[in-house]
Amino acid sequence: MLNETKLGGVIEITPRRFADSRGHFTETYNADSLAQHGITTAFVQDNQSYSRDIGTVRGLHFQAPPSAQAKLVRVLQGVIWDVAVDVRKGSPTFGHWAGVELSDTVGNQLLIPEGFLHGFVTRTADCMVAYKCSATYAPDTEGSVRFDDPDLAVDWGIKPEDAVLSDKDAAAPSFAAFVSPFICEGTS
Ligand SMILES: Cc1cn([C@H]2C[C@H](O)[C@@H](COP(=O)(O)OP(=O)(O)O[C@H]3O[C@H](C)C(=O)[C@H](O)[C@H]3O)O2)c(=O)[nH]c1=O
After folding, report:
1. Residue 187 pLDDT > 70, yes or no?
2. From the candidates 29, 118, 131, 137, which is the catalytic residue?
């Protein structure tokens, strides 16, 4: 099942879960199934992160072209609030954000195209997140924007002062200082 969010291209995907007396089975990724919905993103790297505490915020991050990443995010254990921010120059939703709760119990996923900042906050302890990326890690192209930037005004559901952050994220620049390396398809 696919649900469009208010940001074009950011799509919640809930694969079918086959339950039986042993538990359940899910095809967490099937390129042919996604292609039937017009999703042909080629993923080349799988990531997994573990976050010990509730309120851990990882983000808002991106990789710039030529290493821009689309991502397909899911939760192996726990619950997160997963956030994408449109930063494509020329996009009618530039600077807008969308959030979706992803959990291991629902098994839903979020597809985030290139041109979006990505971040999440954990809503449970011992949270394990896995996500596919359409470009491999290129640290020289990495960038970030502070998660609690007032211009973006993302609602994380926590007080900013309660966020558990990496040093890198605690020192992330503001959105006002951000110069987007992305353009929206169909715009110059
Ligand atoms: C992203 C990445 C990181 N690393 C190394 C670099 C650091 O030594 C260590 C932790 O990296 P970082 O603090 O950037 O990890 P997160 O804060 O979880 O970053 C991620 O968080 C948000 C949610 C994202 O969408 C990105 O994938 C990514 O930026 O892993 C690698 O070796 N390969 C990688 O692809």
Report:
1. no
2. 131
Distance of alpha carbon 122 from its chain centroid, rounded? Answer: 13
Tokens of 29: 């990724």
* Domains delineated in the chain: 2-177 (2.60.120.10)
Minimum-distance ligand 1 atom for the alpha carbon of 49: 18
137 lines ligand 1 (CB under 6 A): yes
Burial of 94 (0-12, 13-18, 19+ CB in 10 A): middle
Query: If pLDDT is split at 50, 70 and 90, which confidence band does 1 have?
Result: confident
Please indicate whether residue 29 is annotated as part of the active site.
no
Query: Has 131 been annotated as catalytic?
Result: yes
- Per the structure block, which two tokens stand in for 122? 């954990």
* Among protein residues, the one whose CA lies closest to atom 2 of ligand 1: 137
List pLDDT tens digits, range 70-89.
Answer: 999 999 999 999 999 999 99
**pLDDT score recorded for residue 183:** 85
CA dihedral 159, 165, 169, 174 (to 10 degrees): 10
**pTM metric for this prediction:** 0.96
